[in-house]
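Case study 2.
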Amino acid sequence: MSTAMQRAERAGTNKFEQRRQELAAAALDAIAEQGFARTGLRDISARTNLSTGILHYYFTDKDDLIAQAIWQYKSECARRYDPIVATAVTAEELAVRFGEEMSRTLRDEADMHRLWYDLRNQALFDDGFRDTIVAIDDLLADMVWAVVVRHAELRGVSPVVDRETAYALFDGVFLNALIAYMRGDLPVLNDLRVRVAALLSTSAPERA
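Prediction:
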């Protein structure tokens, strides 16, 4: 294959992938509003003005579309704390900013986070997008661990929990806050900030 043909093939692949990303982003709100079980390609088509033919051309099925959409959203979420880790100069500043960002994303993107937990639970029964869910969990665990390690470094101590335990703890706190918020408990937004700071301190206590 000539160099020109190879470039043309790569360009075609890149355009196809870019269009998949655009369509997945457009469909995400519709999926988040109804949840996995109640959303099919026809529902997505009706809510986004995208024809089912277009969706079938770019995605093999609903699972493929949902996997692409949730990967794009959650991989972006996993990176949004990087600037906090990189620029915080004290453990207190890191804890405050981390808690504020977690509270903000809970308030502003509750439907998206609800969808994430819906899909993660669904992956226990359906392997159609299970690999994507596992990969996202891994990204989120890395994100939490980076915060925990940096917070400990700023305090001159070492974490007393491992990466997986840290993720389970913070994920549990966030999930419980999300459930409360979806039920109308607005004070939980501030409670989440407090709990995050306390959990960071607990994960790397001062040396005796």
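Confidence is low (pLDDT under 50) at residues 4-9.
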